[in-house]
Amino acid sequence: MANILVVGASGYIGTHLVPELQQQGHRVRAAARQVKVLEGRNWPDVECVQADVLEPESLDEALKGMDIAYYLVHSMAAGSRFDELERQGAKNFAAAAERSGLKRIIYLGGLVPETTKSSRHIESRERTGSLLRKGSVPVTELRAGMIIGPGSAAWEVIRDLVNHLPVMVTPRWVNSLSQPISLDNILGYLTGLASLPETEGLIYDAPGPETLTYEEMMLQYGELVDKHPHIFRVPVLTPKLSSYWLRLVTSVPANIARALMEGLQYNFVSTGPTLREVIPQYLMNFRESAKAALAADRENKIVARWVEGAISCRGFNSEYSFYAKRASGHILTTASREQLWATICQIGHNNQYFYADFLWFARRTLDWVVGGPSFRRPRRHPRDLQVGDIVDSWRVIGIEPTRSLTLQMEMRMPGAAVLEFEIEAIGDQRRLSVNAYFHPAGLPGLLYWYTLLPLHGMIFRGMTRNIAKLALEESPGAP
Fold this sequence. Notes:
Blueprint: E1 3-7, H1 12-23, E2 27-32, H2 35-39, E3 47-50, H3 57-63, E4 68-71, H4 82-100, E5 104-110, H5 120-133, E6 139-144, E7 147-148, H6 153-164, E8 167-170, E9 177-178, E10 181-182, H7 183-193, E11 203-206, E12 212-213, H8 214-224, E13 230-233, H9 239-249, H10 254-263, H11 286-298, E14 325-333, H12 337-344, H13 357-369, E15 390-391, E16 394-400, E17 404-409, E18 415-426, E19 429-440, H14 442-474
Parallel strand pairs: 1-2, 1-4, 2-3, 4-5, 5-6, 6-11, 7-10, 8-13
Antiparallel strand pairs: 9-12, 14-19, 15-16, 16-17, 17-18, 18-19
Helix pairs in contact: 1-7, 4-5, 6-8, 8-11, 9-10, 12-14
């Protein structure tokens, strides 16, 4: 068994890979820019450390005593400079791996299309592998097809399109070819590589067993969830134009969706040696992979979300978007953590919501009329809150005293919502944030979100302003 470092452990693949490696008996150290996120995973006997590939000094301690490192860092969410950041990160990590005496790097990239030109996203992944190989530490590179599993960005784009659009006017990329692979299969390959030193210095493709168009995948998923979208292809929708309308109909973060759109115009079909001969396993086809992804949702097996504030949807509904739409407000204040916290904990007492109470009353009335819980459930205590407490149509699902309060919406609505209050220290001031996360369910959910979005922005800005004001005026003590 080996000492293994997983870099990028807070991401989609990393969060699933860490427990798999541990189950095989490896000693696992998980690294990410925000160690608090890793600690929230509650992995038993996993060492969690802070490390950022853009801060070389943070890598030496993370790599100390390690035999193998999984490099799972991608920066698509960082915006237009993502490829520059990925280039620098790969250089820094290769140099740090040399200094530490690491024995091997395992890097997860993506299938490369058969063309001299590709998207920045794919070119950057290919370049990252090349830069890692320029160091003295041997690299095993795994190039995966589109991964099918809850939270995988490309998979969630397909789900949102089918769930939200009964009629689609699509660009030509829906006829591009892909070889999707299930999350379970890619984890099987990654964990298997840890015990195969003979793969050092080699590049393997990891395609799924089928070659499908994106249109075929959308139609097959539609059959599983009893939706039958009508798809019309037009030549004028470029990937750039597609990224704009995709932002409206999917909850996948905009920067990630834009990078994906640039690559979908190419065929991603394996041309190199595959891992199937080296690590034999049953490969699930797309339909089986999609069923497994839906089952993971239904059985609450999702262990991470790329948007950390988006708490899992209540119950299960295949129409709920995995990622959340977000509206927020924030303010800097001289009020102390304790003053802000004591004020926040009064939410809902005497029907006070800190701003535009008449709008809150109107929404609660509508919920009551259609049989929702509004007006039917009193608070347990006027100033004290505990996990599980009821605040009218909200339920407390997370508390970190003087730091954060998380409420889950239980009103009747076409989706699932979470409201979070966060208090952070910024120098000698405190930053108070109110963030609403909403998982739309189908087209009604999208319409609901966009109809209320202007009001949400106004309300949350007003809430932070008034909470800060009340905290300083009343200076309430702790309960």
